[in-house]
Amino acid sequence: MRSYPGCWVLPGGGVDPGEPLAAAAAREVAEETGLEVAAASLRLVALWESAFPLCPDTFVAAGHSLKVHTLMAAFACRVEGEQPPLCLQPQEVDLAVWLSAEDVAALLESRLSGRRRAAGGEEVEAERLCGVYPNGLSPPEGLGLAHHFILTRWLEERGGGAAML
């Protein structure tokens, strides 16, 4: 992720004016990964509200204002058969990996180990994915807090499948 180097997140982005949320999700997945996803096949998994700074009272008391306030809508869908090859958007995506549901469960408990094959064939140490960003690695890597929450919700309701980071 360009704004937080080393942070592993799900594909996503902004909603264009008048664009339905599911259509925006399908568009962003296609733009960032090359995967064509039908908006009608998406199902809402979680909502995450985020504000920056995290402690607005302190920030406002210092004479500043709220800088960013967002609501993230996370969707899931199935990719049938083998995971297709990805065509990553280099301006926004450095690397992508497919993880099984079992890998996601291990990731969320910071016990994922070994190596995973990234798009393009590069091997990624599983430790780079674990923990909430920034983790103790140098340079720091890990999963964004919102994405940790989203993947937890996805595991709670899933019927199998894999996730892409």
What does it look like?
There is one protein chain. This protein is an alpha+beta fold and 165 residues long. The chain has one domain (7-164): Nucleoside Triphosphate Pyrophosphohydrolase, CATH 3.90.79. Helices cover 24% and strands 21% of the residues. The strands form four sheets. A two-stranded parallel ribbon has the order 1-7. A two-stranded antiparallel sheet has the order 2-3. Strands 4-8 form a two-stranded antiparallel sheet. Helix 3 packs across helix 4 (145-157). The radius of gyration is 16 Å and the shape is globular. The model has no long low-confidence stretch (mean pLDDT 84).
Biggest pleated sheet: 2 strands, parallel
CATH architecture: Alpha-Beta Complex
Helicity level:
10-25%
The average pLDDT is 84
Task: Show unreliable segments.
Answer: none
Classified by CATH, the class is: Alpha Beta
Strand content: 15-25%
Q: Enumerate how many helices there are, as a single number.
A: 4
How many E-type strands?
8
Domain module tally: 1
Tertiary shape: globular
Radius of gyration: 16 Å
Q: What would the CATH topology be? A: Nucleoside Triphosphate Pyrophosphohydrolase
SSE string, helices as H and strands as E: EHEHEEHEEEHE
Structural class determined from secondary elements:
alpha+beta
Tell me the span between the first and last alpha carbons.
10 Å
Instruction: Tell me the strand order in the biggest sheet.
Output: 1-7
